[in-house]
Specification:
24% of the residues lie in helices and 32% in strands. It has one domain: Major capsid protein gp5 (Major capsid protein gp5 fold), CATH 3.30.2400. The radius of gyration is 25 Å and the shape is flat. The protein starts with a helix and ends with a strand. It is of the alpha+beta class and 276 residues long.
């Protein structure tokens, strides 16, 4: 009887609970991404606007004299490692190495979003005013969203299906209280938020909530932007390496990557500051 009780107490459970976490990058598909970079940095070329003009008969074709510039993106190496003692592995009934490898990959995925958010934070264009609903004492309001929408339009940012908006979860809740955002009469049944709160279409952009946006004091920084306004570069995708170390009687699980992000065009990003 005593042996049965000891077995019941110490028998490892076959299920586990992973700590709640954002599982990887949500923002990488929303920006311009370049893979296979060689070196410590890479550049994203920027070509200015051209102006058309009439040509006189038998005259020379007018030259646009386009401005050419570059945005340089510096890459940084990141690691997420963990030791797993060999004797600890026999005390659990699940694959500890796979669990740790996944946790490290998720951590690096979140680092990718941190890099993109840091690039967004360097933008200077903001949707803010003095009218009701546009000040820093307001949350994310329809007035602020329309100011950002107008700013992108005034800058001739293409309305080509590659516009994105990322907001905090508090701001997502506030958007759900805006009839134009939530009502099927405005956006259609296929894009209602309660059919999936991870992303939806509104004002020609894909909107999504994110838990990692910068909070400065009482203000959460939300963004309305075009995909080509931010660059993301990859020299090494997330890679996992598991090695045995006899002197420690343990496996070392190492996840690593080399990535970076940069703001390419300031006119393609509008910050919406929301009180939180």
């Amino acid at each position: 009887m005593r042996e049965w009780l000891l077995s019941a107490v110490f028998q490892p459970h076959t299920e586990r609970h992973d700590a709640y976490q954002r599982q990887g990058s949500k923002l990488r598909p929303t920006v311009r991404s370049k893979s296979g970079v060689k070196g410590a940095s890479t550049i994203f070329p920027v070509v200015g606007k051209g102006t058309a003009a009439a040509k006189p008969r038998n005259g020379s074709v007018p030259v646009m004299n386009l401005d050419h510039s570059t945005a340089e993106c510096f890459l940084q190496d990141y690691y997420a490692g963990e030791w797993i003692d060999r004797l600890d592995e026999i005390k659990v009934s699940y694959d500890e190495r796979s669990v740790v490898a996944n946790a490290g990959a998720y951590a690096l995925g979140r680092k990718t979003d941190e890099l993109i958010i840091a690039a967004l934070d360097t933008a200077t264009q903001e949707a803010v005013g003095t009218a009701n609903g546009t000040t820093d004492t307001d949350g994310l309001t329809l007035a602020k969203v329309l100011l950002a929408f107008e700013a992108l339009g005034s800058a001739d940012v293409p309305d080509d299906g590659q516009r994105f908006a990322v907001v905090g979860w508090k701001q997502w809740s506030q958007l759900l209280q805006i009839e134009e955002f939530a009502n099927s009469n405005y956006i259609g049944d296929a894009e209602l938020p309660w059919k999936g709160t991870q992303a939806k279409k509104w004002l020609g952009a894909t909107w999504m909530p994110h838990s990692g946006l910068t909070k400065a004091g009482a203000l959460r920084y939300c963004y309305f932007y075009h995909r080509t306004a931010v660059g993301h570069a990859v020299a090494q995708e997330v890679t996992t390496d598991i090695t045995w170390h006899g002197d420690r009687a343990a496996h070392f699980v190492n996840n690593m990557m080399s990535q970076g992000a940069v703001l390419i065009d300031n006119s393609g990003v509008v910050r919406m500051r929301a009180a939180e």
